[in-house]
Amino acid sequence: MTFAFVFPGQGSQSVGMMAAYRDAAAADAAVVRATFAEASGVLGQDLWQMAAEGSAETLAQTVNTQPLMLTAGIAVWRLWREKGGKPPAVLAGHSLGEYAALVAAGALDFQDAVLIVRLRAQAMQEAVPLGAGAMAAIMGLDDDGIAAACAEAAAGEVVEAVNFNAIGQTVIAGHKTAVARAMEACKARGAKRAVALPVSAPFHSSLMLPAALTLKEKLAGIPVHEPKIPVLNNVDVASENDPERIRDALVRQAHHPVRWVEIIRRMAAMGVTQVVECGPGKVLAGLTRRSTDNISGIALADFAQVEANLTLE
Questions:
Q1: pLDDT digit string (tens) for 151-199?
Q2: Is 94 a catalytic residue?
Q3: Strand, helix or coil at 291?
Q4: Active-site residue among 40, 95, 205, 239?
Q5: Please, what's the largest Cα pairwise distance for the chain?
Q6: Active-site hit among 175, 204, 255, 256
Q7: Sign of CA pseudo-dihedral 19, 100, 202, 145
Q8: Which residues of 251-305 form beta strands (DSSP E)?
């Protein structure tokens, strides 16, 4: 058996998102809390209190969500390693989760990553005026049908497929009015559902280019090292060792699609049979099972699941 670790991104946050780890033994809980304390010290903001008591509205604010999800993922990763869990054969992260994967691989320092994802969140929010962008999930329509619907609906605006999450589940993003038109065009082509997502910006669309340029400038000053574990990136579905190529992939990721189905299939081709979701929630574990055969998903959604899966190798 060969296993991979994947880290969730924005959308997996929830009220009381770390409550499932409170039942851990004192020493294990301390690993989780210490990670949150480290990130809180970097930002000058109590992330543990936000994770424990923050409202859904507070958690959904991009500038809060991104550092919270990074910290949660690394807290569970550190717990896994502290408990004797073996390193996986390969790592990946969905969108924002790629930063957690790079931290776990030793390519990024955790404190640097906390700062850069806060900046990334701010840049993404500022790239498009609030209320001008939108995202929607399209279920039950193939990629070609979605591309044709987006082309028809654009009418001089931007609407694009931006998250290829699983077979039959793709997210589109762009200008709010164009996304609304594309939702109807997708349903006219046979989509089972088209659901508007409660997000504040059209992430991963070409409208995020200004955010990518800001990110490029800031990443230039952040140390990046050769990963100790391969990390499959979102934008190319490739594992990079050169620091400049890692930075470039992170910059392009901000305004290009997340190719998650291809990442899971690439893992399967590498011999991975188990994909382990590291962090709160079970979204990626579910997507894994819908992306390819002969590979299954496990979610370390609580302390009990961490302990139950320590024998993976």
A1: 999 999 999 999 999 999 999 999 999 999 999 999 999 999 999 988 8
A2: no
A3: coil
A4: 95
A5: 58
A6: 204
A7: negative
A8: 274-277, 296-299
